[in-house]
Amino acid sequence: MSVQFIKYNAVIFCEHAMSARCETIGKYVLPVFRSQVAKELVSTYHLTQVEAAKKLKTTQAAISQYLNQKRAIKSTQEFDEILPRIQEAAKETAKRLANSETTWDEVTFDFCKLCVTFYSTEESVTGDNYSI
Length: 132
Known about the structure:
Elements: E1 5-8, E2 11-14, H1 20-43, H2 49-56, H3 60-67, H4 73-78, H5 83-98, H6 104-126
Antiparallel strand pairs: 1-2
């Protein structure tokens, strides 16, 4: 499956219609990804919570909740199969953010590309295609 993305003023548009999977990914997987990135920025790259928050375009309080497992932790058990890919992408993203090689807006685009791999894996295993 070839998916085309269009970047316009830091907003990413996918050529495919919004699907129920996009909503699920946004609600459950994206917070896990953000949590993993926040943890990497603080523990590996020694950014303060405030600095990490600026990189992730969120608040220091959100970073604190990620670090103290108050946000996103419930979701990780539900996504055990894809968690290694999320963690790998989060490590690479944190490295690029810490080194100012990318911005959070660009990371959002990269996450959309990662998300498509979740779709193709699910469709090949289950035959399900939830596009609306």
